[in-house]
Amino acid sequence: MGNTLRRLVRQLLRTSDMRSVRNGVLTFILFAATVSVAAAEGVRIVPLVRDDSVLVSFELTDGYTPAVKDAVHSGLKTTFTYEIELRQHVPAWVDRTIQTSVVTNSVQYDNLTRRAKLTRTVDGMVESTEETEDEAVMRQWMTTFQRMPLFKTAELETNREYYVRVKATARPTNGSMLWPWGSGISGITKFTFLR
């Protein structure tokens, strides 16, 4: 990104044509938007307002890597933790956090029975558990969430823009063996609250 930015600045300085300056600025904005979208591709988020709740669906697209699969099948308890925040953009100030929620998914694989115990907790309370032998079920359990009622709309103002931010981390962390993004990955999606 640094070389491209330097090249655009040099080009803008060399030319005095306003059309070239405008095209250069637009090219830079498009380039910056492409870089930020590429960085956020790891977490796909869809917020949906229904009745008095904000339902959050999200997917960690590349989270269940071959290294994670190997760690699970070694019998090592593997946990994905998702910190979800409902935030409001505040111009020229720090964004306001409205509500937060923590969802933790873990897999404990038993090599003798070849079955995995799956556990999901939401804000410290066990929401559900199940057992499976199916690898696809384990992958989906750890990385995909559908319409989870995580937040209430009571504190939201009509016609205001909000965003949901999801930060995902994995445990255990052995360098980047289990997690290709080092300490974690995050993504955001904006929505407007309409009543």
What brief labels describe this structure?
195 residues; three-stranded antiparallel β-sheet; 27% helix; alpha+beta; 2 domains; six-stranded antiparallel β-sheet
Structural class category = alpha+beta
Number of domains: 2
Low-confidence runs of at least 5 consecutive residues: 21-40, 175-181
Number of strands: 9
Shape from CA axes?
A: elongated
- Report strand %: over 45%
User: What order do the strands of the largest sheet run in, or round the barrel if closed?
Assistant: 6-5-4-3-8-9
Distance between the termini: 41 Å
Sheet with the most strands, sense and barrel status: 6 strands, antiparallel
Could you report the average pLDDT, rounded to the nearest whole number? Answer: 80
**Cα-based radius of gyration, to the nearest Å:** 21 Å
Q: From N to C, what is the helix and strand string?
A: HHEEHEEEEHEEE
- Specify the helix fraction band: 25-40%
What count of helical segments does DSSP give? Answer: 4
